[in-house]
Design a protein that fits this description.
CATH topology: Protein-Tyrosine Phosphatase, Chain A
Protein name: Beta-lactamase hydrolase-like protein phosphatase-like domain-containing protein
CATH architecture: Alpha-Beta Complex
CATH superfamily: Protein tyrosine phosphatase superfamily
Helix content: 40-55%
Pfam families: BLH_phosphatase
GO molecular function: hydrolase activity
Strand order of the largest sheet: 1-2-5-3-4
Number of domains: 1
Organism: marine sediment metagenome
Strand content: 5-15%
Oligomer: single chain
Largest sheet: 5 strands, mixed
InterPro entries: BLH_phosphatase-like, Prot-tyrosine_phosphatase-like
Order of helices and strands: EEHEHEHEHHH
Radius of gyration: 14 Å
């Protein structure tokens, strides 16, 4: 598991395990957000195991499952609430980190971060967020 630091208060990662939570807690993370539906793939650790490990460390855990390629306004609203309500630093994960950083970009863009900055930050971390920028531009036109 490799956490990619997006900002001082937010990081993304690929799928984590309950054992990874020990490392995340030691690194100072306060909140974990899972953006992967439970049982999405064979061999994927069940959400309850990761949630239990997080809670054992006194961490906040939120499960906001997003089906790949099907982000919704509800997903964005739930992710926004989690970032607004939960203590930082936050680690969000899914299979590869893409859904999690897309949600971050959408939330930041809706709060006024320039899409160009979102795309650049994503590219620095190996994620293509041009689709996020396009969606944000479309929202501004409506």
């Amino acid at each position: 598991m490799t956490a990619k630091q997006v900002t001082d208060e937010f990081s993304v990662a690929e799928q984590i395990t309950a054992d990874d939570v020990d490392v995340l807690a030691a690194a100072g993370y306060k909140t974990i957000i899972c953006n992967r539906p439970d049982g999405e793939a064979v061999g994927q650790p069940p959400v309850y195991e990761i949630q239990g490990a997080a809670e054992d460390h006194g961490m906040i855990f939120r499960h906001i499952p997003v089906v790949s390629g099907q982000l919704s306004m509800q997903d964005i609203a739930e992710f926004t609430a989690a970032l607004d309500e939960c203590p930082a630093p936050v680690l969000a994960f899914c299979r590869t980190g893409t859904r999690s950083i897309q949600l971050w970009g959408l939330v930041k863009g809706l709060k006024g971060m320039p899409p160009k900055d979102i795309v650049e930050r994503g590219a620095e971390l190996g994620y293509d967020l041009r689709g996020v920028a396009g969606w944000l531009a479309q929202q501004q036109q409506e």
